[in-house]
Each structure stands twice: as structure tokens, then as C-alpha cells.
Amino acid sequence: MIAGSVDEAVAGIEDGSTVLVGGFGFAGMPFDLIDGLIRQGATDLTIVSNNAGNGDVGLAALLKAGRVRKVVCSFPRQADSYVFDELYRSGRIELEVVPQGNLAERMRAAGAGIGAFFCPTGVGTPLAEGKETRTIDGRDYVLEYPIKGDVALISAHRADRMGNLVYRKTARNFGPVMATAATRTIVQVSEVVPTGDLDPEAVVTPGIFVDRVVRVEARNYTVQGAR
Amino acid sequence: MIAGSVDEAVAGIEDGSTVLVGGFGFAGMPFDLIDGLIRQGATDLTIVSNNAGNGDVGLAALLKAGRVRKVVCSFPRQADSYVFDELYRSGRIELEVVPQGNLAERMRAAGAGIGAFFCPTGVGTPLAEGKETRTIDGRDYVLEYPIKGDVALISAHRADRMGNLVYRKTARNFGPVMATAATRTIVQVSEVVPTGDLDPEAVVTPGIFVDRVVRVEARNYTVQGAR
Amino acid sequence: MSLTPDELAAVVARDIPPNSYVNLGIGQPTKVADHLGADAGIVLHTENGMLNMGPAATGDQIDPDLTNAGKVPVTELPGASYFHHADSFLMMRGGHLDVCVLGAFQVSAAGDLANWHTGAPDAIPAVGGAMDLAIGAKQVFVMMTLFDKKGRPKLVPQCTYPLTGLRCVSRVYTDLAIIDVGPDGASVRETFGVTLDELRKRLDVPLA
Amino acid sequence: MSLTPDELAAVVARDIPPNSYVNLGIGQPTKVADHLGADAGIVLHTENGMLNMGPAATGDQIDPDLTNAGKVPVTELPGASYFHHADSFLMMRGGHLDVCVLGAFQVSAAGDLANWHTGAPDAIPAVGGAMDLAIGAKQVFVMMTLFDKKGRPKLVPQCTYPLTGLRCVSRVYTDLAIIDVGPDGASVRETFGVTLDELRKRLDVPLA
Q: Given 3-state DSSP classes, what are the helix, strand and coil percentages for chain A, each rounded to the nearest 5?
């Protein structure tokens, strides 16, 4: 469960994998695991994440390294998403834009064994084009399918040795959902505590969803909005 | 938000309401609110709960008082469910048996705005008879619809004055799900603490899902399994 | 006189009932927070997983783990709670929020909303939470100028930009007027520095 | 010699890999817990919302807020966690548990399970979590006697009792034999006090 290094934690990720990457902008972004994935070398990846990278770090660095075939996200275009923007405009990366709530709910469905669900978001919009629709009790819905990952890379605050996780503030975001939706969930944390030290009432992600944990040094990443 | 009495908390529940009632056996059962509902007098109710009452207290007392038209539950038959058993055998109550996971997921769907979902539980069984089925990615599913409550009656451990809730051990069970699925959620708690005293990372049910909270005295209910 | 953006934000804030749960969209709607009374008990939701969000963080308050949906550092008020993305969007999509305030490119008289894409062929599509917010509250208010920079009306008979949501907007707050929209069409509640007749002349939409 | 219920529970426990997440059904499967090695790192799930459940509570340990799915008071081990019912069943239905151990009235050679209803017309139906558990783990083990009190086989070509789940059981542990079931039919792994030929004579199911 507890890996000795980032490289050990990300070992074995295969070419062609679908990788769920936590974070909303920089908050909750598993920077160390992404750097490890770049060193590890897996390529032809499909990345599922809320954004498509900022500046030159994290997801943007993975994209820049040419490892990503397709991005599934809600909001690729940002002030400093120049790496993605260039790949996209030059036709070197595929993009599937998914409403943010659908992204979360489709991953939850994958984790929960739901085959598909009728969803109110996007009805009548271009993002529902070609999708099955149905009126239920007078309201219109679009049928949406699960998004399952081969791997999830997420960042949490603390883990115990069984892989139980707690998060910190809005860095929680997609982490708990992605942990349920991937075959293998790899987590970077600021601290590993002895089993029994986390309050059982306050565990957010139970260890059943976690495969590997690695402790990393806190990193002073730039707050995007503060620039 | 904070009601002065149980009677004030349950005021206004209408005849014919669908009432979601928390608890798994006695753990998490909102005894005081149910007693209040009996005094309040609403009748012709549909009760959604995991069980159909034990002994002569709680749900069983509500059933005995003749206020319930229909029970939607996963497990009505228990060693001491004699009140329900007699009503059922004499044709004085309707029963819809729902697999426990479907009960939870159908209420979650109601809370989440999902119109319907394809579910793996029950495929090929009598409980799926007459329901729409579909094969998705090689697996068979049954289409299940949301269960929405007019009212939820649940029990939690502590609330703050904004209605944020924490629970205690396995008494949590259906509470957080039912709170999302009802138009009006009424909660009995052992303690009301000042706003700011609950850890924001550990709030299980945010106050947005809660309409009324009432503090009740702890009750030494019998542990069923210990009998 | 037409309203300044700040005056408009104050008008929107005035119309949000006490004790409401509210999501303020990115951009101009964010300003509404500055005009909400501290005693009104209004709880702000941010879709990246928090209720009872406080004002923007400054100086030492800045915490990279605590931002709003625009990725701006914010603060936490007493009674706050954190939750993951599926739970956060459950709040929206399940209709638990009382009010969403959104910006828009266009709103139709029936309440259709276009605010995520200009339809420009070279634009990189990016929707974020816009479509979830559009259908994600008991009331959806739009804040916008009534006319774009070229003087074209943004309240229209039919949206020509790609839609964000169908029949989802209940009211439009603009610099020149507050207008209810919906199944019965557009109905002016209040005007600012303009008469109803002048509005009728400048809009292609019948105004009640 | 055929196995006693306790011996059978020990055999099931032996076959659960270390560090597995396991749900033990109500009744006889509960006994398996007594035979799991304390060092094996096996984590017990109870569908009423807990992981790392400990043994039954006694005396002062009894807490009405802490029970297993059979409503028996239990204890909490270090590293436990609590969660609500939708999350608990997500664990099952999403295939996150490694092993479920269930009782049964009948299992078919293809792995169909009947364990919730005898089909008696006057019985009050009650399913609980049985149908979710049946499809709720990577491997579903059944523990049962191979013959009922009247001597009729419980491993059958086709279940005659109402089904709990289709093609969901992977292995059947009985007092007389351990038998794999599934798409390739029934295959005997181990017998207890009986020969394969004797089993073949007493069962209507081809045995590999």
C-alpha cells in the first residue's frame, strides 16, 4: 500500500491507459505523480481531468511531453493553457468536452456499477447532440455513460497505512470520485499517519478504493487566480 | 432551522405524504420524530425505510396507529415485525420490496436530479419483472427510477445552527441519502452546537439539505440483536 | 440613468431572499457577494466543493487549497463544509440551490440561455459547470448588459449562439431593465433610465 | 468425514487471500470471521455502512449505534471508516469488494443463486441486501449444506426457487465438497468423506 517513492507508486502504468487525474486547476493536482508518470514513460494516454493543464507544469508538462492522445475535460481553455491550445489547434490531440457535473457523475457511475443514467444537464445543447434522450415525469434527460479509469492519480492530505484518506479544503474536489472509478488508484499525500489515527467518522475515501500511497514534500505551487 | 419541540418540527406534514424514515433496525431510527408524527396525525402515508418496524415502537407504532397505506422497504420480515406482518397478511397495507442498494441509489438519484439509471442489481429476478432492461458493454441492467420524499425524518448525532450534521457510527446509514431526497428534511439530534463548532472537513450532511432540527434526549433503545 | 455594474450587482443582491443558498457564476455575478447583507444568512456555494464560502483571500489568508470556481483564493466562513465534486453537483442538479446568478451572451424570451460558446469556428470549446448551473437552481438569474458592444440586443426571440440550457432562466438583470422571462415570454419589472416604449423599439422581443 | 459448520467456516477462511475486502452474509457465513488470521489484513465490510468491522460486542462494548447487517452489536477496529448507505452499496455494486460469502437455498451449476425467498405463497417477501451482495464482489462464495433436510441437492441444474442473481456465484463451499460453478459448469475441487463418484450419483449436475 505505502510506496517508497513516486517512481515505485506509478510503476506499471501501461501505454494506452485511461488516466483520471485529480485537481481543479492547481488545487488537488497530483504534481509529483504526474512528474513520475512522465519519467515512467507511458504514452498514448487518455487523460480525464477537469482542465487540460496550466503553464508548463503538471498536466501541461505531460501534454508537452507528447504522451497524451486524448483529453476528456470540462474546461480546457484557460488564460495559461497554451500547451494544450497549441496541440489542439495543430490537430495533435483529441478533445472531448464534458459538462463538469457530468464528468463527476459519469465517474461516480463507473465506481458504483451503474450502466448509464438519464441526466438533466445539457438537454437541447450541442453537447447532447446524437445522444439518446427521454422524457421522464415531464422533464427531459440525456443518457450518459460511465467513465472508467485504468488508473487514477490523485492528491490527498493525509493517509493511514490502510489507505484511508482525508483531504484539505477545496483540494478534495474530484479525488474521492476518481478513487472509486479507477482499477488502480494511486495517491500522493503530505503525511502518512499510523492506522487508527484518522477519525473513522471523518474518513472521506476508505482504503478499499486505494491501491498505492506515496508521501511527497509539500510544494509551494502558485495560486493561479492570484497572478 | 432549530425547532423548539418535536411537535413544532413535524408540524405541517400532510395526509398522503411520502415519508422517508431513516434507520437500519433501531440504529439511526428517529424515534422521537415518529412519535411526533403519530401525535401530529397525518395519515394515508407512504413510508420508505429499510425495515417495516420492530416490536411496538418507532415505525411499528406508526403502522399500528393505522397511518400507513404503503411501505417501501428492503426487509419487512423480522423476528419481531409482528405489527407489519399482521397488517400485511390481513391485506391492510401495501408492500413494495426493493433491494437495499436500489433503495439507497434510487433515493440518491432523486436527490441528484437523475431521471433514471441502469442498475446491475436484480437482473433476472422476480424483483425486475416488468422492468425495462438493457445490455450495456456486455452486462445486463435494469432501469430503476428515483424515490423522492415529501418529507424525510432522520436522526443524527450533532447539528450546528445552520443544520450541518454529523452522525455516529453505523447509525449514519440512510440519513445522509434521505436528507438529499426529500422536499423537507427534519432531523432529531442529541446535541445542537454553535455554528463553527463542527469541523468543515467532517460535516456529513451540509445544512443545504436540512430544513428543521430538533434536539431530543438520548433514549436507551434496546439493541435488537442483543435480545 | 442606466446602472453601473456595481449598481446592478446591488440590485441583484437586493432580490435574493434571506437564508438562500446561492451560487454566483464566474465574472460579473461574483460582484453580487459584495452587496449581500452580512445578517441575511445567505450561504454561498462554489461548485468546486464548498458551502459558506467567504470573501476573496488576501495576503496571508491565501491558501492554494482553498479557491472558488474561478480558481481565485477565497476564505471560509463559520459553518462551512467541504464535499467532493459529485456531491457538489448533486446539490445543483438536484435542485437544492435557491438561486444561481450567471452571465450570458444571449437569453431568449422563453428563458433559453447561451453563455458558454460564441460559436466561433476556431474557438476551443470549454463548458465547465455552465450547463449544470443553468439547470441547477430553483431560480436562475442572468446578469448582463442588455446590448452587446455592437449595440445588438442580448435578449432575443431565439438564441443564435450555441445553447447552455433550455428554458432555464427565470429573470434577466441588465443595465437598462430587469426582465422576467419564461413560458409566458418577457415581462419588464423595472427600467433604469429608459422607458418601456424605448425598450420595445430596441428589442425584437414582445415585452409585457 | 463431512465437515462441521465450524470446519467449513475454517476452510472458507483459508481460501480468502490476505488483504482482501470481504463481506460475510448473515447466518453461517458470519462464522468465517472467527477463522481469519489476525495478521492476514482482511478487512470486513458491513453493508449498513462500515469497513474494518471487529468481532461481536459483549458487555460494556455494546453500542446501539454500532451493529452489523444482522443488527448484532459489533466493534470497531483501528482503521475503520463509516459511510452512508449509497456509498456502502457503491462499494458492492461497483465491484470493489474482493469476496462475498453468502448462504443459499440453491445454486445452479452455472452460478445462479437463490437465497432470498422460498417461493412459498404465504411468505412475506424480504430481500435486504441479498441481490446487491450477489452481484457485489469480484468473487461470490456460497456456504451451504450440499443437501437440504429432506436430502434434496441444493446444487442444481436450474434453480427452482426465485432467483437472487444470475451467474453470480463462483464457488460453493459445502459440508461434502468444494465445487467451482460458472459458465463451464460445476467442477469439484475437494471432497470431504465422500468420493467424486458418490457425488455424481447424488447430484443431477455433471461434475468435472
A: 25, 30, 40
